[in-house]
Amino acid sequence: MNSLSETYKTADWKNEKHVPVIGAPLAVKKGTVVPVTVTIGKEVAHPNTTAHHIAWIALYFQPQGSPVPYEIGRMEFKAHGASAEGADKSGVYTHHEATMKLKTEVSGTLMATSYCNIHGLWQSTQVLAVE
Ligand code: FE2
Fold first, then answer.
1. For a tag on the chain, would you pick the N or C end, based on fewer CB atoms within 10 A?
2. How much distance in Å is there from the Cα of 18 to the middle of ligand 1?
3. pTM
4. Choosing from 53, 80, 97, 116, which is the catalytic residue?
5. Catalytic residue among 6, 9, 18, 89
6. Any idea what DSSP says for residue 127?
7. CATH numbers and ranges of domains, the chain
8. C-alpha 126 – ligand 1 centre gap (Å)
9. 119: annotated active-site residue
10. What are the strands of the beta sheet with 97-102, ordered from one edge?
11. What is the pLDDT of residues 8-48, one digit of tens each?
């Protein structure tokens, strides 16, 4: 493997806990503000501990015909139980889910990425049609 892009993994989110699950309508009317929720571990829960957690999620949208995707937003998850008393002692954990909103004039593809601190980079996509 010689490039970062080759390290991104994907799978069926119903069986693989790392895959970002995109929750968005399949089609919207032009000019609609579209809420998009990205969840990790929707079917198979992912751990959320100091030693093993989801560090961030990022969402992109690539309009049809565009040579590049546009970054919609990014959410970093910072609380994973660490405290001065040690790992998993604070009792405070950020849940790895984020809702972002976008508006687009053209159809395209939503692209979600996530990063597990020990299992690396994951991705998924969903087409968004604009009518
Ligand atoms: Fe993991």
1. N
2. 6
3. 0.94
4. 116
5. 18
6. E
7. 4-130 (2.60.40.730)
8. 22
9. yes
10. 20-23, 34-40, 97-102
11. 999 888 888 999 999 999 999 998 999 999 999 888 899 99
